[in-house]
């Protein structure tokens, strides 16, 4: 038979593809987890202790044709290799949450696989970190982002928002949306943000729409009566102010500054105090007005992003 008539070579089956042994490989392990073409040799006892999913699986009788490696049954997982490795790294490092700050990739892996395979303690740890960046009460809100427990990186706010929505961490959503619209420009929202590894982080369309509309609504609302920047148009110097003309002039200057570059200041606005700023009499009143405005914004924050009120936003894990 000529080579032109020879049948085409058969495509190699996925299960026959070369398998890579991960560096998470314990010689006394009793089960091999395989994600894609990578295997991890670990301990049934540790999996069962931390996951009701694997505890139930361990109790099932093993089929006679169960594949094995070095006498250990092979359990195939339909998950990304990186997610499995990140989860197992945390699982095998009991002091992990106390010893180091976590990368977003580690937190995301634990959230996804913690939900799927019911690693409740690990899931609670990862969700607590997400909630620390996006709290449900205004007293816990902090302009410093992301905090000392999460390693900062380009596009982190976008990734936290997407992770929270996709995994029903509903309590984090209002603050996560707010942080995005207050941190990133419209160009970054539409075009995405480049990471340190030159990957592009962008929002799904549902989140992009909420951010664009929410940003517009917040910029409009923050100037309305009772909100954060209302004082710029309604406040007048204290009757005890010895420099009323100067304080009024500073208010006008700040008003022009905010209006010349519209941005979301509803929760992050800081009155420009210090040298050459408002007088001793006027400063406390302005601070009080700004603080009251922030509280009002926080109370209504979910509505700006078409979300249910705070009391209905319960994490569904």
UniProtKB/TrEMBL annotation:
It holds the Pfam family BTB. Residues 27-100 form the BTB domain. CDD domains: BTB_POZ_ZBTB_KLHL-like (cd18186). InterPro entries: BTB/POZ_dom, SKP1/BTB/POZ_sf. This is BTB domain-containing protein.
């Amino acid at each position: 038979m000529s080579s032109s008539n020879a049948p085409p070579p058969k495509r190699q089956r996925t299960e026959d593809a070369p398998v890579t042994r991960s560096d998470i490989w314990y010689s006394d392990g009793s089960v091999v987890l395989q994600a894609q073409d990578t295997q991890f040799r670990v301990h049934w006892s540790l999996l069962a202790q931390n996951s009701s999913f694997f505890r139930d699986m361990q109790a099932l009788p093993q089929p006679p044709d169960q594949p094995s490696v070095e006498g250990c049954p092979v359990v195939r997982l339909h998950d990304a290799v990186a997610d499995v490795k990140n989860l197992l790294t945390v699982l095998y490092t009991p002091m992990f949450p106390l010893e180091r700050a976590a990368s977003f990739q580690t937190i995301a892996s634990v959230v996804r696989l913690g939900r799927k395979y019911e690693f409740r303690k690990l899931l609670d740890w990862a969700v607590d970190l997400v909630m620390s960046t996006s709290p449900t009460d205004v007293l816990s809100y902090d302009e410093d982002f992301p905090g000392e427990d999460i390693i900062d990186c380009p596009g982190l706010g976008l990734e936290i928002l997407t992770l929270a929505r996709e995994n029903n961490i509903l309590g984090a959503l209002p603050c996560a949306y707010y942080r995005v619209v207050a941190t990133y420009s419209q160009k970054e929202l539409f075009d995405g943000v480049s990471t340190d590894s030159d990957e592009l982080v962008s929002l799904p369309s549902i989140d992009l729409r909420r951010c664009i509309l929410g940003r517009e609504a917040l910029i409009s609302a923050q100037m309305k009566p009772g909100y954060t920047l209302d004082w710029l148009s309604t406040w007048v110097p204290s009757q005890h102010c010895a420099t009323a003309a100067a304080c009024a002039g500073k208010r006008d200057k700040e008003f022009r500054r905010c209006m010349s570059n519209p941005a979301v200041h509803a929760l992050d606005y800081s009155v420009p105090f210090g040298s050459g700023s408002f007088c001793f009499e006027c400063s406390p009143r302005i601070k009080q007005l700004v603080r009251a405005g922030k509280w009002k914004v926080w109370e209504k924050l979910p509505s700006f992003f078409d979300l249910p009120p705070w009391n209905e936003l319960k994490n569904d894990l």
